[in-house]
C-alpha cells in the first residue's frame, strides 16, 4: 500500500521517531499544473536529520530528493508526460512511494535516456538520479559559478571522500583539467577513495598540518581556491 515516512509534530528526534503513514493513491486529485510521480529511489541527505529532529520547524514529511516515473499529469501540464523518467532535489516528502509536485518545479528534471542505455538495470539509474542531485549541483555551482575553475587553477577541496567533495575532485580534474587538485580526508581508507576520484595529493588532516602540506605541494605559491 502507498506510504510516506513522517515524524509527528512534537515527537521529533532520532530515527526511532520515524513513522510510516499509509495513504490512498486513488484519492489524490491533481491540480491542473501538478504531476504525480511513482518513486523508485529516495535520496538520503544530512539535512533530513534536521527535519527529523525538529531543528527545522514545521517539516514533518521527510526527504527531498529522489527519482521515479511520472504516473499522472494535470490537465495543463505540457512539459512532462506519463511515463517520463525523472529525478529531483527539491520535493519535500520524498521518503515515500509516490509524490506530487508542480510541473514548474525547478528541481525536477528528466533523466536522459542515454544514461539508461549505459546500464542493464533501470533501477541503477534511478539510484543515481535519486542520490546525486543536491551534491552534484552544489559541486557544479562551486567550481563553475562561484569560482570558475580552469586548466590553470589549483584547488584545495576539503572532505574529498564525501559526496560533494568527491564530485568536485572529478569535475575539477577530469572535466576542467585543473593541474593540481589537493584534498583533505580523515583516514587512509578515505585517502584511497579520493585518489580513485582523481586527486593529485591527499592530506590526512588528523595527522598532518594541511596548511603546511599545501604550501609544500604548491612550492609556497598556495592554491587559487579552497572549496
Can you offer a commentary on this structure?
The chain has 227 residues and is of the alpha/beta class. 30% of the residues lie in helices and 23% in strands. It has helices spanning 47-53, 113-116, 122-146, 163-175, 188-197, 210-217; strands at 3-6, 19-22, 34-42, 66-73, 85-88, 98-102, 108-110, 154-157, 180-185, 201-204, 225-226. Strand 9, helix 5 and strand 10 (201-204) form a beta-alpha-beta unit. The mean pLDDT is 97.
Break the fold down into its secondary structure elements and pairings.
Blueprint: E1 3-6, E2 19-22, E3 34-42, H1 47-53, E4 66-73, E5 85-88, E6 98-102, E7 108-110, H2 113-116, H3 122-146, E8 154-157, H4 163-175, E9 180-185, H5 188-197, E10 201-204, H6 210-217, E11 225-226
Parallel strand pairs: 8-9, 8-11, 9-10
Antiparallel strand pairs: 1-2, 3-4, 3-6, 4-5, 5-7
Overall helicity? 25-40%
Low-confidence stretches: none
Number of helices: 6
Main beta-sheet annotation: 5 strands, antiparallel
**What's the number of extended β-strand segments?**
11
Rg from Cα? 21 Å
- Mean pLDDT comes to 97
Overall geometry comes to globular
Elements, N to C (H/E): EEEHEEEEHHEHEHEHE
Portion of residues in beta strands equals: 15-25%
Question: Strand arrangement, largest sheet?
Answer: 6-3-4-5-7
Q: What gap, in angstroms, lies between the N and C termini?
A: 44 Å
Category from helices, strands and their pairing:
alpha/beta
